[in-house]
Amino acid sequence: MTDPAELTHADWQARAAAIRPETRLFIGGDTVAAASGEVFSSENPATGEPVAEIARAGAADVDKAVAAAKAAFPVWSRMAPRERALVLYRFADLILENAAELALYDSLEAGKPIADLVSYDLPEVATTLRFFAEAADKIEGSVTATPSDVLHYTLREPLGVVGCISPWNYPLLMATWKFAPALAAGNTVVAKPAEEASLSCLRAAALFVEAGGPPGVFNVIAGFGEEAGAPLARHMDVAKISFTGSTAVGRLMLRYAGESNLKKVGLECGGKSPNIFCADLPDLDAAVAAAVEGIFGNMGEVCNAGSRILVARDIYADFVQRFTALSEDTYRPGDPLDPTTAMGPLVNAEAKARHLRHVEGALSEGARRLFGGGAPDMPGHFVEPCGFGDVSNAMTLAREEVFTPLAAIIPFDSVDEAVAIANDTVYGLAAGVWTSDLSTAHRLVRDIEAGVVWVNTFNDGDMTQPFGGYKQSGSARDKALMTLAEYCQVKSAWIRL
Asked: 418-448, pLDDT tens digit by residue?
């Protein structure tokens, strides 16, 4: 098996020219065309050319997939937890064996740099599957203290059919954060990946069956939100929707649950994360490097991107100078199939237009452009990373989630002011704090309204770390053992002896 990390630019280009992906839906353990026979075109954002014609799921396909998952539920939920774990372990192995193919699909459809997919996304998919495989037999109930003539115990049982709606910015990884704990807990799954990037999830479903997963346990439908996502969220036989995406669509998920069967809804939505740099931070160069990666990594298409960079005025000028130099040197748009590329294109034309619109808006509101902000003379949806200084938190750039490589650097004069700025947002997904003072660090961890707070690092962690937000960033948590509880329901058994 070829190590994907050893493949060259020419190797990836040759593989891209030769791909023949499976484009049909995966329902009941087999590939099937959409009931309507319709397809939609998946576009390569680096070239604007089509990647594949993918089956376009509608309500009839959702019904079929949910029925298959419902029929498979008794088999999977009653399988011994260690047996489910073994399937997930084999699934993880097959993901790594097919990592080059899966990485290529996500690069071609989402524009992600191939090096990022090979070094991070695909290994993390396998890690996530193995983590929850290990947890499959760790789901426990309890026996409570009762009168001597009563036995009372609680059980954690799987919910049933879980709908997983995932985004395009980490196509297979974000989907795995959802379906891995759902499957480990004994649920069956209907996954609906974003229409911009469906191929890797469709392929993964086939690998699940190859790993020994019973047909119907893991189904994948591709298509558009209004045609496939909404019917899935409204379905009366779906027990839970796990959703990652925009706050606006997250609201729709709650509405759909209310309009149907009051299903559980887990939301991981938008963010406008503050990254706070105090004057006493331990290492300015390391801090600047983390700030640059925190906003420009993955083209800024990250829900917890550190897009609001709050810098103490005492170090502001030096910070801005270093930030500008490092950004211009590190993040240059290039072919995502080139392993040396750190910045690929944005996902589509609308994202490119949004980026350019926000650049013009920031200039009109009085922010100072430090670098970038244009569009290079390249095919596809490439933009230049852009940084603005002297930003006020009242400016649109500091308030709206742009989801592109656009940084807003905001000065502050005191820790109290930094906290006030950090919390002055409808979002609360993540935050970063940089300081050498232990008391300041703990105080900011306490006072910042965010689900994840990093200290002297950013966008760091492992599978033990729950990921999710406060406020309009959502209500759910991905990763970590506690996530399993969100895919279970509690039953109380009260027995009179």
From this structure: 999 999 999 999 999 999 999 999 999 999 9
**28-63: pLDDT as tens digits:** 999 999 999 999 999 999 999 999 999 999 999 999
Residue 43 known to be catalytic: no
Q: Out of 43, 196, 268, 293, pick the active-site residue.
A: 268
Q: What top-level class would CATH report for the domain 4-269+474-493? A: alpha beta
Q: Say whether 303 is catalytic.
A: yes
Q: Active site residue: 201, 269, 303, 488, which one?
A: 303
Task: Give the global pTM.
Answer: 0.97
DSSP 206-275: HHHHHTTPPTTSEEE--S-IIIIIHHHHH-TT--EEEEES-HHHHHHHHHHHHHTT--EEEEE-----EE
The domain limits of the chain are 4-269+474-493, 274-462
Classified by CATH at the fold level, domain 274-462 comes out as: Aldehyde Dehydrogenase; Chain A, domain 2 (3.40.309)
- Burial bucket for residue 285 (CB in 10 Å: 0-12, 13-18, 19+): exposed
